[in-house]
Amino acid sequence: MSDAFMLNRRLAAVTGAASGIGRAIATEFIRAGAQVHCLDRDGEAVKAAALELGSAATAHLCDVSDAAAVQSTFAAIQAARGLDILVNNAGVSHIGNVETTSPEDFERLFRVNVQGLYLCTRAVVGGMAERGHGVIINIASVAGTAGLADRFAYSMTKGAVVAMTLSVARDYVQRGIRCNSISPGRVHTPFVDNYLARTYPGREAEMFAKLAATQPVGRMGQPEEVATFARFLASDEAAFMTGTDYPIDGGFLRLHG
Ligand SMILES: NC(=O)c1ccc[n+]([C@@H]2O[C@H](COP(=O)([O-])OP(=O)(O)OC[C@H]3O[C@@H](n4cnc5c(N)ncnc54)[C@H](O)[C@@H]3O)[C@@H](O)[C@H]2O)c1
């Protein structure tokens, strides 16, 4: 049997691991042999997820936008042994253009999607550089590089995720750290279901079909399709890959007409 794409003996942390893409990544990393620290601001959900994932998973209640919580959580995680892999996945969305986005919503998105990624990366990158190896994977979005309607604050944060990815990749390329981002198109997770329930009550099925059709392949992605690519990026087979944003979007960004 091939041992390609395995993560045996690797220690990983995944933020936002209680649900959707983060949970699928934690599941896939464990299947590949890794130990995974699952961080989420929803304490009950992350405990339940880790319980289901088994003894290779450890749950941590941690809001990534809270500097003190991030500091103490990563200090505890790394007390015995440094992390090999960090996946910055935790994120929140918002609907609105520049006029309908309040300063409070703008700041809330910035604090989770941008500052959260900065704080978590800052907590691990020094140790990775000292040990001379590490992989950081950031979950961006097609919103970071395409002009999506009514996603002003969200797009701002995901553009920043792509930029931070390049900056970290450049600064640590000679210290053994690889840093890449993944930009999913629409992926069917609670993120999408909650948005539909909130925004189109009673019309969820109709709007789901409409959202699915915006991907040229005619459907939304599955969280597992992002997770298998994250596993590849985290593995030694991707040793030559750093400083790039990889869309997984059913053709959304580049196929037209
Ligand atoms: N689903 C999509 O269509 C889609 C598309 C592109 C990008 N993304 C990105 O993928 C990532 C995951 O999205 P998802 O669809 O799996 O969402 P989801 O809502 O299903 O899961 C997100 C998880 O992150 C957690 N979280 C939110 N804020 C947090 C915080 N401050 N600290 C710690 N945990 C926090 C939530 O509790 C939840 O468990 C996000 O960054 C999102 O922007 C999603």
Describe this structure in words.
This protein is an alpha/beta fold and 257 residues long. It folds into 2 domains: 11-185 and 222-245, Rossmann fold; 186-220, no CATH class. The chain contains 8 helices and 7 strands; from the N terminus they run βαβαβαβαβαβαααβ. The protein has helices at residues 20-31, 43-53, 67-77, 103-131, 152-172, 190-199, 204-213, 223-234, and strands spanning 11-15, 35-40, 57-61, 85-88, 134-139, 177-184, 245-248. It has a 7-stranded parallel beta sheet, with helices on both faces. Helix 1 crosses helix 8 (223-234) and helix 4 runs parallel beside helix 5. It starts with 10 loop residues before the first strand and ends in a 9-residue tail after the last strand. The model has no long low-confidence stretch (mean pLDDT 97). The protein binds nicotinamide-adenine-dinucleotide. Residues 15-16, 18-22, 40-42, 45, 63-65, 89-92, 112, 116, 139, 141, 184, 186-187, 189-192 line the site of nicotinamide-adenine-dinucleotide.
